[in-house]
Amino acid sequence: MAVAIGIYLAWSKGILPPAFHGFASMLALSVCPPFILSIAVGPTAEAEVMAVVTAGTIVFANGILYAGVGAGAFYVFGLLRKRR
């Protein structure tokens, strides 16, 4: 989740362009797939609210994604260990 927060802060400060617009953003997208939302979020009338919603979604989705990957790896490891 710390990586997702760092990626979001870099994107919001203009250090990273939106996803698919450069090597650094493609690298960020490979580490944090929810960064794809940076393309969907455009200028809005309530920019502060949208920034909070986007940041929360990116961080929460990245946490859930890696929790699922970890749970799946634990399950497979448990199956392989039982067979031995």
Total of domains: 1
Q: Give the overall shape.
A: elongated
Q: How many individual β-strands?
A: 0
Radius of gyration: 16 Å
Average of pLDDT: 78
> Helix share of residues?
over 70%
> What ranges have pLDDT less than 50 throughout 5 or more consecutive residues?
none
- Element pattern in H and E: HHHH
Can you walk me through this structure?
- The chain is an all-alpha fold.
- It has one domain (2-83).
- The protein has four helices and no strands.
- It starts with a helix and ends with a helix.
- The model has no long low-confidence stretch (mean pLDDT 78).
Compose a concise summary of this entry.
By secondary structure, the protein is an all-alpha fold.
Could you outline the blueprint of secondary structure elements for this entry?
Blueprint: H1 2-12, H2 23-31, H3 37-40, H4 47-83
Helix pairs in contact: 1-4
List keywords for this structure.
73% helix; 0% strand; mainly alpha; elongated; 84 residues
